[in-house]
Write a structure and sequence with these properties.
The complex is a heterodimer of chains A (1045) and B (479). By secondary structure, chain A is an alpha/beta fold. Chain A is built from 35 helices and 37 strands. In chain A, the strands form eleven sheets. Chain A has a seven-stranded mixed beta sheet. In chain A, strands 20-24-21-23-22-25 form a six-stranded mixed beta barrel. In chain A, helix 10 crosses helix 11 and helix 18 crosses helix 19. Helices cover 69% and strands 0% of the residues of chain B. The chains are: A alpha/beta (1045), B mainly alpha (479). Chains A and B meet through helix 23, strand 28, helix 27, helix 28 and strand 32 of A and helix 7 and helix 12 of B.
């Protein structure tokens, strides 16, 4: 057997009764592989992994490295008795990272990913370029998901409370309990999280009537589902094609971040905004809290979440009444309703935008999209779908795809139906597949009561939480990187989740647990594979299975839904939109957090420390209020307020957010844990408790009252309240940093960005050394960047950037190598926002290099500004002299507190920095070197695009391009030559290798935004920033050079 | 005065009356003290069995603060630079502020001992030993900070050009490296100058020593001084040479320190006015420190006749003059920021005066520009209490000047996204206090055990030292 050596090592390890890491290195050799798989699954060891096990593993792996001639320690020979690979397993090269295609589910839909495994441990997750719903991109939470595997606060054992007191047992005890107990032979209920897994559904079907199926997640798109169910008589969801759209109108829909297809939509949006194919797609956005989508809109109008429906109704009135657009057949009964809609009294600026949008929609038939967000009631979704139908968008820019799970209750009904089932049918056994419904359910759902009535509750969970406390068995959940599974993507693509590592804490996936309950003896791999064969109907399932594991996606799709909906049925629900919602008190809007989602990632340090893309807040959640409300209530940033609704209340610090709708307070969910884990505990406040079944998404009649206390907010930007003087200066500088113009202006002067600031002649006292090799450079397209922050987390994962904690962020010591600067301009009530990712600019004339007394930061002949960690003494002078402030200093030893398990996520190709050392973006030099070595081995030139930096690879909107500037026609040199390309602070003559491409907006004709932009550019042409530059004597520049040389 | 002017120039130097103040024509040493008196006055400070009570109190305080410094440095080195308030835009905080402050303090000592020596300002003799000691200890206090402020203290020797097997060499374009040379040169030269000047006085102490320990210790450091004519000739030559060596240092050291800022790109640092402005500021602050130390020392150790009000008046005039240079520099920075038309720079200066650190800026301006103006009045120049309080304010002002330069410029640099506010931690504050402990610890030991006034030099400005022509003047004065 080819894998004999690995089996030897296995045996040795099993001899000590411990688990070990599985290397899924070779899927090709099927017979051997199958055999190996069987062995591995049958010999599931039971004890949870601990540090000794890890050492054993590393010892074996280390020995293999030594055999391979690489050597690991360099200092001493290992003295331990080792079990070497007598023969290296075929296809396995120790120390070489291997990638596997897998799938992560988010909001019940899959995103195809490529996970990188290094000697058997997953260290990095990226988008799978061959998966149509990710196209190589990945969001923050995909990037951070790899850290979840190494979370030491995970549920590690099988907690048995079936006989009273809790005892920690192992997997076999639980398996025996299930086998010996008759409960799963009878009827039982399953409360699952959203999942599109067809295998899970097939298991459910195999259970037949024995199982009652409920789904609940605090954040769902079931309002949309309910609407589509009504219209199409079948659960389905709209899939947009933004690339075909010239106008997109989002009604409270954050499709660029908080959407199961956000990666796909970001890719499409970037393409739609690209200037290659004419004017960028115009985006309108009507929402209360500024979302990532809203931040990218040309025309954004803040309005209360409750009023978004009215805005859409006003749009319908504008189209069908004012513009007398004919109603589509079958909807004639809606005419009088639309007449009523014209009476809606919305804010004048909102109405202006609605009129512009209506004009656009009517003139661009079949080239527009109206999309409605998940917080909006079903009526708004119906109306949105109806407008898409009437404007002939359906079928062109919007299509419908069947939901993967048809026969289930809506999330909002999960608990009432579960309670009904319990009382009606006497169901006394419940399996909870993940989540924390006790904490996250609406406060009036009575979940504790329902669970209290159960005789047996099995809770599968990643962390012990409030629900676990009520469960009779708490089963550790295996992460997706540890288990077999499958999922459908939002666009309907089927893909498989394949594990990279044996479950660290011997956990189970939902699939395995359900199989166990169903008495299915097959292992998870076989179940998924057999289900796949059935789905594909393939003649050669073996080959197809290998192919899908390799490719990560398949031709299997969810059914498209092409029938026209029966919009006439919408009359009933849509009548509610005919009157303006009552305004009583403040509206509280409950949002999934932009970083930790609904709290399931609350114990993930990378996500907690990732700044919110809009508020730039790390760690805590806050009550986000508008300037107007803050003024009226006398609130300042950081004031702790009591947020009350009815007789429940919670306390939160205030963040005053430009662009927040007056009368609306937004609160992000998922915080306020006390016993979840070291990262999550004590961070933020619980919001779930404010929700009730009637209003799970937003609720009117809330109030804020000051507690008199204040709290420091760990924001990575605007660390401190800014004074008038600073505000004015910031306002002045923003247009010179983030350069933008309307499309019309761009057409007339495409190189507008290069004339916004006067750039003095770049004269140097000395001849710059010339090298003939590679000249690495980067281009960041601000027109594509949405500001989502995926690059930041990707960089953290790739470059072993430690989590420093809230206190350190407060002190201004965050270590992120790339940050996304976010600026607002214009009116605070409704500003324009811009995003600018900033990492080391890799200046050719680097100011940091000239001031380092020990030459710890030096230039490579390829133009990289290299940081020599072990030469750095830590004077921090380089940071002071860096105009971009991209250098990060290790003020403490952040590696000291990391557990051995967490260390496993480290990328072995990047040095882990210790205390007292400066660090910064390296352009992912390890990737550059790897690609160069690969090319050298293969005796070829490097290909353009072969090297991709971590930020570039993950960027969901492909805003980042990296490559060789010396190569002719490389993407990056083309982009640098683009008229939109400019250097930030170019007037300092630092000659940055990273350049930005100016942002181009596409304002509607006649909009106030267009007028303001034209006025700004007109002022800029004669005075303003441009004029100041001209007046500046060139001496300033000359003295710069004198000083530097 | 009129008498000397009528003499031909060739005779001027030999005929110049060294015993009187050049302006007021008052004797430099008052009270009609002779050679023996001076020896007695100075030596008894070190020979009394016990020092004044105030010395013990002060020394106790200094030891405690010095101990605090050790504790803070131990905490810093064991934990990391993060114990300070420094953050990402403001990567230099109290450490560099303190460094520049202490280096500046030292300058008055060198100016008094070297430049005033070359310019034959004989009034310097009363205070030069004192001021030189202050220089040495200020450089001690200053020198600690650049060493401990780095992230990895254990490899800080890499900034010195020490040949090594790794063939690593410092980077000579960095102003921090220039600092290394400037400071070490300064410390060595000052130490040598101070010690060499002290040799004749140490010999006097040795000769008067009663205990064996004192005999051995002073004897060791007196280097076998016998006071022979040949020794005096060598001594004077060496003194002149060292004074000539030290003179450029007065200008160069603080200029080099200012390069740390001036050669960078940062608005508020990147300005050509820094070298002269820093030197003037250093002399300003240094003289204030001399006054601050000399006033109590004079009272405590009975040096009224050696350090007279005339000395103080001269120093106060220098404080007034250099204070105005500093004030001019402040104004000129603003003018250039406006006149230069660089929007970034002009914002930096507006931000200094009206931004979040305006409080520090106005403390600086008040202490350095407004308060010293009282020295226009002779009464203030000659009132010990007033000058002592003013000297405290000037020292506070000069510390804040460095704080304003370092912190306010960094806190709001180019990209508004990185702006932040620096707040010192308790460790920062204790380290600053501790550096005063170090300074006073050494200074008080010096006061107690070493000749705090250069006896030999003071004797040279007595009329008795000039029997040829000064003699009758002395007689007149006595009469």
């Amino acid at each position: 057997m080819k894998n004999s050596s690995s089996v030897i090592s296995r045996k040795q390890l099993q001899g000590s009764g411990r688990t070990y890491w599985r290397s899924l290195n070779e899927f090709a050799g099927s017979a051997e592989y199958e055999e190996m798989m069987k062995r591995e699954f049958s010999a599931v060891a039971t004890e949870a992994i601990n540090d000794t096990t890890r050492r054993d593993f590393l010892r074996v792996m280390g020995a293999s490295l030594a055999l391979a001639g690489i050597g690991i320690s360099g200092c001493t020979w290992p003295r331990e008795k080792i079990a070497p690979f007598a023969n290296r397993p075929e296809g396995y090269s120790p120390g070489t990272p291997v990638q596997f295609a897998t799938t992560m589910e988010h909001m019940g839909y899959g995103t195809g990913l490529l996970a990188t495994s290094y000697d058997g441990r997953p260290i990095k997750v990226d988008g799978n370029p061959r998966h149509p719903a990710s196209l190589g991109g990945a969001q923050m939470l995909h990037q951070a998901s790899v850290l979840n595997v190494y979370d030491i606060d995970r549920q590690k054992s099988y907690t048995d409370r079936s006989s009273g007191a809790a005892t920690e047992r192992d997997r076999s005890a639980f398996v025996n309990w299930v086998a010996n107990n008759q409960i799963f032979k009878g009827r039982f209920a399953v409360l699952a999280e959203s999942s599109s897994s067809p295998t899970l559904q097939s298991l459910r079907r195999s259970l037949g009537d024995r199982v009652l199926w409920f789904e609940y997640e605090p954040v769902s798109r079931d309002n949309e589902r309910d609407a589509m169910q009504l219209l199409f008589n079948q659960a389905c969801h709209p899939v947009m094609d933004l690339t075909q759209a010239s106008v997109v109108a989002s009604f409270d829909d954050d499709f660029l971040l908080n959407h199961p297809a956000s990666v796909m939509y970001s890719k499409q949006f970037a393409q739609a905004r690209s200037l290659d194919s004419g004017a960028p797609t115009r985006l309108y956005c009507f929402e209360s809290v500024m979302s990532v989508t809203g931040a990218n809109a040309d025309h954004r109008r803040p309005l209360r979440t409750a009023e978004v429906g009215a805005a859409l109704a006003a749009l319908a009135a504008e189209i069908f009444v004012s513009k007398r657009h004919p109603l589509p057949p079958g909807t004639e009964n809606l005419a009088s309703l639309f007449q009523q809609y014209s009476g809606l009294s919305l804010d004048a600026s909102v109405m202006d935008a609605i009129k512009l949008l209506a004009t656009d929609l009517v003139s661009l038939k079949g080239k527009a999209i109206v999309t409605v967000g998940p917080r909006q009631p079903a009526a708004v979704h119906i109306l949105g779908a109806m407008i898409n139908q009437a404007m002939q968008n359906t079928g062109h820019t919007v299509r419908y795809v069947s939901d993967p799970v048809q026969d289930r209750f809506s999330h909002s009904l999960a608990f009432s139906e579960l309670a009904a089932a319990a009382s009606r049918e006497g169901v006394r056994n419940l399996v909870i597949l993940g989540g924390d419904p006790v904490a996250s359910a609406p406060q009036d759902a009575g979940v504790e009561g329902i669970l209290g009535g159960m005789e047996n509750i099995v809770h599968l969970t990643s962390h012990a939480n409030a629900t676990s406390a009520l469960a009779h068995w708490v089963v550790p959940r295996a992460e997706y990187l540890e288990s077999w599974g499958d999922a459908y993507a939002w666009d309907g693509t089927y893909s498989v989740t394949q594990p990279l590592i044996e479950p660290l804490f011997d956990g189970m996936s939902p699939l395995e647990l359900l199989a166990l309950c169903a008495g299915d003896e097959r292992n998870a791999h076989d179940i998924v594979m057999q289900n796949f064969s059935e789905l594909s109907g393939s003649t050669d399932p073996e080959r197809d299975w290998r192919r899908i594991l390799h490719e990560g996606s398949s031709a299997i799709r969810l059914a498209a839904h092409s029938e026209t909906g029966n919009f006439g049925l919408g009359l009933g629900p849509m009548t509610a939109l005919a009157s303006m919602p009552a305004t009583q008190g403040l509206e509280l809007v409950f949002l999934p957090d932009n970083c930790i989602f609904d709290g399931r990632y609350a114990n993930n340090g990378w996500l907690q420390e990732a700044p919110d893309p809009v508020t730039k807040l790390t760690w805590d959640n806050a009550a986000v209020v508008s300037f107007k409300d803050a003024g009226e209530l006398g609130l300042k940033d950081g004031d702790v307020v009591k947020v009350s609704i009815g007789n429940v209340s919670t306390e939160l610090p205030v963040v005053i957010q430009p662009g927040q709708a007056a009368g609306s307070v937004s609160l992000s969910m998922g915080y306020g844990h006390s016993k979840l884990g070291r990262i999550a505990d004590g961070v933020g406040s619980d919001i779930f408790m404010l929700r009730d079944s009637e209003h799970p998404d937003f609720i009117p009649g809330g109030s804020l009252s000051r507690t008199g206390r204040t709290m420091e907010l760990a924001s990575v930007q605007d660390h401190h309240a800014i004074d008038e003087l600073g505000m004015k200066e910031r306002e002045r500088r923003i247009p010179t940093l983030v350069r933008e113009a309307d499309y019309r202006h761009y057409k007339s002067s495409p190189d507008f960005a290069q004339h916004m600031v006067h750039q003095p002649a770049d004269t140097q006292l000395f001849v710059t050394p010339q090298f003939n090799g590679h000249r690495w450079g980067m281009s960041i397209d601000l027109n594509a960047c949405t500001g989502c922050g995926a690059c930041l987390v990707a960089c953290v994962a790739e470059n072993n950037i430690p989590v420093v904690g809230k206190q350190r962020v407060l002190e201004g010591r965050e270590l992120h190598w790339v940050r996304v600067d976010r600026y607002f301009s214009g009116d605070v009530a409704n500003p324009q926002s811009v995003h600018m990712p900033i990492a080391c600019q890799q200046c050719e004339n680097a100011p940091c290099e000239q001031v380092c007394p020990v030459a710890a930061t030096v230039h490579s002949d390829e133009g990289l500004n290299d940081m020599v960690y072990n030469r750095c003494v830590g004077t921090r002078y380089c940071s002071n002299n860096c105009p971009y402030k991209v250098r990060r200093f290790n003020y403490f030893n952040y590696q000291k507190t990391i557990s051995d398990t967490e260390r496993l996520v480290k990328n072995p190709e990047v040095t882990v920095r210790s205390r007292g050392v400066m660090e910064k973006c390296t352009y992912c030099v390890q990737r550059i070197q790897n690609a160069k070595i690969r090319a050298k081995v293969e005796k070829r030139e490097l290909r353009d695009g072969e090297i991709r930096t971590a930020c570039q690879q993950t960027c969901p909107s492909d805003a980042i391009t990296f490559g060789d500037l010396s190569g002719i026609g490389t993407m990056v040199s083309q982009r640098h030559a683009d008229p939109r390309s400019y250097e930030i602070l170019g007037e300092l003559s630092n000659r940055t290798r990273t350049r930005y491409m100016a942002r181009v907006r596409n304002f509607a004709e006649g909009s106030p935004e267009l007028a303001a932009d034209q006025a700004r550019l007109a002022a800029g042409a004669h005075g303003g920033g441009h004029g100041e530059g001209h007046e500046a004597p060139h001496g300033e520049d000359a003295s710069n050079h004198e000083a530097e040389h | 005065m009129a008498k000397t002017i009528t003499k031909p120039l060739s005779q001027l130097s030999t005929e110049l009356d060294n015993t009187r103040d050049a302006i007021s024509q008052q004797p430099l040493i008052t009270g009609g003290k002779g050679f023996a008196d001076i020896t007695e006055i100075v030596a008894r400070v070190a020979e009394y069995p016990s020092a004044p009570k105030a010395w013990y109190i002060a020394f106790g305080g200094a030891i405690m603060l010095f101990g605090l410094l050790f504790a803070m440095l131990a905490y810093l080195i064991s934990t990391g630079v993060g114990v300070w308030g420094v953050n990402t835009p403001v990567a230099w905080g109290f450490a560099i502020v303190n460094f520049v402050f202490w280096i500046g303090i030292g300058h008055a000592g060198t100016l008094i001992s070297a430049i005033l020596y070359l310019f034959r300002q004989k009034w310097r003799t009363g205070i030069n030993r004192f001021a030189e000691a202050m220089t040495i200890f200020a450089v001690f206090a200053a020198g600690i900070f650049p060493l401990v402020h780095v992230g990895r203290v254990w490899v800080v020797y890499w900034i010195f050009p020490i040949p090594n097997q790794q063939q690593l060499w410092p980077q000579f374009r960095s102003p921090l490296l220039w600092d290394v040379f400037a400071i070490t040169t300064y410390l060595l030269t000052s130490l040598l100058f101070w010690y060499m000047g002290m040799v004749p006085d140490l010999a006097t102490f040795r000769d008067r020593a009663k205990t064996k320990l004192r005999k051995i210790m002073y004897g060791l450091f007196a280097l076998g001084w016998r006071g022979s004519n040949r020794q005096w000739i060598h001594y004077e030559k060496a003194y002149l040479l060292l004074a000539a060596l030290a003179t450029p240092l007065v200008l160069s050291v603080h200029s080099v320190v200012s390069f740390d800022f001036a050669t960078s790109q940062l608005p508020g640092w990147h300005t050509t006015i820094f070298p002269p402005y820093f030197v003037a500021g250093a002399i300003f602050g240094g003289f204030a420190m001399v006054v601050f130390l000399a006033v109590p020392a004079r009272q405590l150790f009975g040096l009224r006749n050696l350090i007279t009000l005339q000395h103080f008046e001269h120093m106060n005039k220098i404080i007034l003059g250099t204070g105005m240079i500093v004030g001019y520099a402040y104004a000129m920075e603003f003018f250039i920021a406006w006149y230069g038309g660089n929007a970034l720079e002009s914002f930096t200066f507006q931000n200094r005066a009206f931004g979040p650190y305006a409080w520090a800026y106005w403390i600086m301006v008040t202490c350095n520009v407004f308060i010293p103006q009282v020295f226009w009045f002779k009464k203030a120049r000659t009132n010990l209490w007033i000058m002592w309080i003013v000297s405290i304010f000037v020292n506070i002002g000069m510390w804040f000047e460095r704080f304003v330069i370092v912190v306010s410029s960094l806190s709001r640099d180019f990209l508004p996204s990185s702006w932040d506010y620096y707040v010192p931690t308790w460790v920062d504050l204790c380290t600053l206090a501790g550096s005063f402990g170090l300074f006073f610890f050494f200074f008080l030991l010096f006061c107690r055990y070493l000749p705090i006034v250069a006896m030999a030099e003071v004797k040279a400005v007595l009329p008795e030292a000039h029997p040829g022509h000064g003699g009758h003047a002395a007689a007149e004065a006595k009469a």
